[in-house]
Amino acid sequence: MVDDKSYQAEALIGQDIEAYLAAHEEKTMLRFITCGSVDDGKSTLIGRLLYDSKMIFDDQLSALEAASKKSGTQGEAIDFALLVDGLAAEREQGITIDVAYRFFATEKRKFIVADTPGHEQYTRNMVTGASTADLAVLLVDARQGILTQTRRHAYLVHLLGIKHIVLAVNKMDLVDFDQARFDEIVADFADFAASLNLVPPLAIPISGLAGDNITDKSPHTPWYQGPALLPHLETVELAEDAAQNAAFAMPVQWVNRPNLDFRGFSGRLAGGTVKPGDKIRIVPSGKTSTVKEIVTMASDGTLATLPEAVAGQSVTLTLSDEIDCSRGDVIAAADNPPLAADRFEASLVWMDETAMLPGRAYELRLGTQAVSARIQTPKYAVNVNNMEHLAAADLGLNEIGVVELATDRPIVFAPFAESQKLGSFVLIDKISNATVAAGMLHFSLRRAHNIHWQAVDIDRTAHAELKGQRPKILWFTGLSGSGKSTIANGLEKKLHANGKHTFLLDGDNVRHGLNKDLGFTDADRIENIRRIGEVAKLMSDAGLIVLTAFISPFRAERDMVRALVPAGDFIEVHVDTPLDIAERRDVKGLYKKARAGELKNFTGIDSPYEPPEAPEIIVNTTELSADEAADAIIAYLDKN
Amino acid sequence: MPSLTHLQQLEAESIEIMREVVAQAENPVMLYSVGKDSAAMLHVAKKAFFPSPPPFPLLHVDTTWKFQDMYKLREKAAKDAGMELLVHKNPEAEAQGINPFDHGALHTDMWKTEGLKQALDKYGFDAAFGGARRDEEKSRAKERVFSFRSENHQWDPKSQRPELWSLYNARKAQGESMRVFPMSNWTELDIWQYIRLENIEIVPLYFAAPRPTVERDGLLLMVDDERFPLKPGEEPQMRSVRFRTLGCYPLTGAVESEAASLNEVIQEMLLTTTSERQGRAIDHDTGASMEKKKQQGYF
Q: pTM (2 decimals)?
């Protein structure tokens, strides 16, 4: 089955090696996986590809012939499968138990094949093989048709984001190259593919054993109009070429500082292209600069620069400004940088004997970042045989699920569907150091608009972003004994329970410290409120939801505080309890003392109270309990 | 935009791997065997960290039986790269005078396998780069790029860590180590093409020249120094030979060839029909010999 092309190549090697080598230096490289059930003929197909592309040497061939007779399954004929079944243990069991990588080349491309196992307990190996593949060859035995295994592998290929699928209907020689059988299998798969939103694959009728439609169109399938397998593999688009169209992004692996005069940032382009002079932004810091040079070493060991670098290249960049940038940062196009966030939804493939533990901190690696991450109980697990969603308390070995996870600090990311490099991650057990899971980010659970941070501004927004909340000042005002502190206290507990970062300022923690020098004259009351207002403002700048519970009788001071913070962040809560009711309650016995003249300047008695004219919230304590009032305020906060 | 060529892709991947090791490991080292694969790997390392020199030393596990030309290039290559060269010889093997003529498999075991373990332990290296390629041999085809070794330097093919995308996990406990194979996805032809494209200096033994040789057990052996024990009646003959792989000279078979230039060597390689390791005595015994050696700690 050695085709004409090989003979031509051989002639060129003999006559003009220089021309041959020059041509072969221009080859591209495609990585693909083969998957299918145990007996679908994967190893035979790979052996066939190696054989047809002349990658098997004479000594290997004679060893193969001897081995075929001894333990082969093809009688006296060569058992190609023996070429690729590697480990001794496997040879005994007659199965492939791990990912094996094979290499062959044609005139146009070098190929790396990940041979992945077909049986159930090794999903993790298939996922491993698929993670670096541009294309998947899904093998189906023409006699068996689409099996559960086929569907499982197709799902995994889809999950791992492989854009090109070849449905290779194998062993066509055993069904007499029957077109009807082929069409039936293709239609069967198409139904399934549609349910997964898979791109329709290219279906090719082949025989790995006999070599039909491998390198050339087979005379046995005149009804088949498409390309043979190898010509298709030689022309399909490479994932890295597609990545060149994305925005420039390069995770920094290593900072290169040979001396004080040189500071370069080394990494491999995850996407896009970059040229000297391009404006860049460091994420997550947000600092901007321009690319000065793309530095590399010339063959003679001297410094050379590149006019451009593209996705997939490993380079060292120098920048025109001295700015902070280290391993884990991403250098990106200034006008289109990736986002940063700390809570995500993701698909997870569990790969360890020890099941996932919700709540445990694992090390998460994404690009060159390493952070601590906690996973919540899965939203659901996926039955890989029929894609049904199942309830799950955890994920065990080879189980796949959708989870929410939180990192201990924001990480730079992109959804996996947009960027393989910035959307894929692994989880590592911090005790055993084993890689326990592979993940693909769907999206962040909060709007990740923190990306245009200006470098120096760790401002109100930045603080709030980290806490995942909008800072507010909830300013409770009302007569003494109206219920301000009670409601504010209850409200704070509820907010805290909801994961909000809060702080309650009231007479207890302010009058005894910050304001202990102040009395109850009008001037002191004003100064009291001014100070409380400033403190509340600082705390809200720090990202907190601040609750204040003071009589704060004067409209002017309340409005002064309102003006300190952005519109909408000051919420005036009028705890509206009529004087007679407050006085009747008289929890602390203050009204009695005031009426008796023992307390001077008591609001409502001998000092005025100016009720708010347009408070955001009015709480009528004669109608609502403190608890109901707190709920009403939360309802207001949720709406605004 | 043009696609990257396969050599550009391979180089970019190898550079990424080397930088990951430097970023993640505490005390990395590059095993340097002076062969063409080591030469290509060292060249990639120089490019990966340029203008810094590669931030790790070179380690040669010496058996004292390498070709003289290899010792010459070893010193020069380290100097050119601006790297420290560490040479380790197993003191027990030295004391016992272990040699390939009298001791057979024990020679490889003591000088190479044990010698390597000793050197890694002596310097406390936690990551060692090796130039092995997956296309060399079946068990290598299944090994990870970051290959985890137990405290006893053992490789367990059944419990390899999954290795996904380009997210390499170099975490390990005290005493454990990693072997890292940045050239995993290169083939022999890729290495030759890269050497040609980048003009990398290699040991002259790869090129054909008249050399004194004797024929033994089907192998053409070069009489590289006076330690070669000639059998009665054995007379070294000058033959035009070259080597496809380099190791201990008494264990490395030459091929008769007239290919004296790089292009001619590649041409001959492309037209040849025997695989590379056939020149090495080590692989001949059984189909699974390399896998066994690796479980014992051979690189």
A: 0.76
